[in-house]
Amino acid sequence: MVTSYACHVDERAVYAADGVKKGRTLAKKRVVVMYGGKADEHSISCISTAGVLRALDMDRFDPVPVGITKAGQWIVDGEDPRGWNMAEGLPTVEKVEGARDVVLDVALGQDGFFARNADGSLESLGHIDAVLPVLHGPYGEDGTIQGLFEMMNVPYVGCGVLSSAACMDKHYTKVLLAAAGIPVAPGITLDARGFDVATKFAANGEDILAQVQAAGLEYPLFVKPSRAGSSFGVTKVEHADDAAELAAAVFEASHHDWRILIEQGIDAREIECAVLCPKAGEEPQASWPGEIVLDKRAGGDDQFYDFDSKYMDASASHVEVPAHLPDETLQRVRETAVKAFKAVDGAGLSRVDTFVTADGEVMVNEINTMPGFTPISMYPKAWEATGVTYTDLITKLIEGVLR
C-alpha cells in the first residue's frame, strides 16, 4: 500500500506597503506541546498546558498542541486547551469532530510528525524543533516518552530516561538520594502483587504491621503508591498497631501501583524548591524555596496536602515564596535541591520537595521532573519570586534544547 504525504510548509514573508514581497523572516521555532496522557494526572496536565500555551512567546514559537487521550490516542486539532480552567471541572482530551490522529515516522526524526486526514493521507506537521511534554505521571514523566524521543533524535524539554524513571518511582528516588548522602524519610517498601485482594488485604494486615514494627517506624505513617503523583492513593495512618487500618491504606494505594511505600511522618515543614537547568552541561540553579500553607490546618483541621487541597479547593492552601525561614535554612534547602537534582542526573527542570525540621535539618521527600505548571503552581511561582517570569521560564526551557 502506498501512503501519500501532504506537506505542511511554514513560510513567513515580509511585504512592502504596495504588497510586493520583500523577503522571508526568520521562522518561528515549531514546538510540539504535549498534554493529557494515560496517567491519573491527565486533567492536571491539561490545566498545566492551558497555562503554558497562554503564556508562550508567540513571537518566538509556533506551538503544535498534541493531546493524548486517556486511552493513549495521540491527536491534533482537538479542543483548544487554552479555554480550559479548573473552575469548570477537570478537563479531558477527547477526539472531537475534526480532530486527527497523530502518526509518527521514527526514521524521519524531527520531520516524522504527521496527522492522518479523513481520506487516509498523512499531512506533515512540519519540522519539529523541540517537544515540550507537559505530561505528569506514568507514560509521560516516567522515562517512556523520553525514550521515544531519544530514539527519534528529537530534542525535548526535561529530564532524560534514567532520571525520569527513577524520580517517578519514589522507592528508587530514595535509593539514589541515600547513596548520595542526602537524608530521606524512614520507611519500607512493599510488593502488593501477592496480597489477598479478596479480603482487601485484611489477611495481610498483621504481616504488614510486623514489617512496620521491625523497621521502627513512628506514627503517623503515610502510605503511598511508589509510582503515582498528585497525592493519588495517599493515606495518613494515625492509630499505632492497627493492622486493619494499615491494610486498608495499603489496599487504597494498590489501586495505583503494586509497589507501595510506608513512610514515617516527619514533624517538619514541607518546603519546595524549583531547580532549573535548561542547557545540558550548565550548573543547575535553584529558586527561592516556597511553602504550601494549609489554611484549614491553621483553623484546627487535621489536613495534609492531598489532591483536593492542591487543585480543587481554592480556600485550602496558598503559596508563600520565599518560605518564612531563616536565610541560612533557605540556602541549605537550595543547596540540597541542587545536590539532589545532580544525584538523579536531572536535566531541564524539577521541583525538589523537602522536609525542614525545627532544628533546620533538611531531608528530601521526592523529586518531580515535570511539576505542575499552571501559573499558580509552585514551580512557576517560585521562579517568579526569584526574578524569572512565567513566559521567560518557558522560553528558557525550550531554547535550552534547541539545536
TrEMBL record:
GO terms, molecular function: ATP binding; D-alanine-D-alanine ligase activity; metal ion binding
A Pfam family of this chain: Dala_Dala_lig_C
Binding-site list for Mg(2+) 1: D353, E366
One Gene Ontology cellular component: cytosol
Localization per record: Cytoplasm
UniProt-listed Enzyme Commission number(s): 6.3.2.4
Binding site for Mg(2+) 2: E366, N368
Active site, UniProt feature: E41, S230, S377
Record text on cofactor binding: Binds 2 magnesium or manganese ions per subunit.
Binding site for ATP: 170, 222-224, 230-231, 263-270, 365-366
Keywords from the named record: ATP-binding, Cell shape, Cell wall biogenesis/degradation, Cytoplasm, Ligase, Magnesium, Manganese, Metal-binding, Nucleotide-binding, Peptidoglycan synthesis
Biological pathway: Cell wall biogenesis; peptidoglycan biosynthesis
ATP-grasp domain sequence ranges: 174-399
Listed GO biological process terms: cell wall organization; peptidoglycan biosynthetic process; regulation of cell shape
InterPro entries linked to this entry: ATP-grasp, ATP_grasp_subdomain_1, D-Ala_lig_Van_CS, D_ala_D_ala, Dala_Dala_lig_C, Dala_Dala_lig_N, PreATP-grasp_dom_sf
Domain of life (superkingdom): Bacteria
Catalysed conversion reaction: 2 D-alanine + ATP = D-alanyl-D-alanine + ADP + phosphate + H(+)
Cofactors demanded by this protein: Mg(2+); Mn(2+)
Segments forming a coiled coil: none
Protein family according to the UniProt entry: Belongs to the D-alanine--D-alanine ligase family.
PANTHER family: D-ALANINE--D-ALANINE LIGASE (PTHR23132), D-ALANINE--D-ALANINE LIGASE A (PTHR23132:SF25)
Biological role stated in the UniProt entry: Cell wall formation.
UniProt protein name: D-alanine--D-alanine ligase
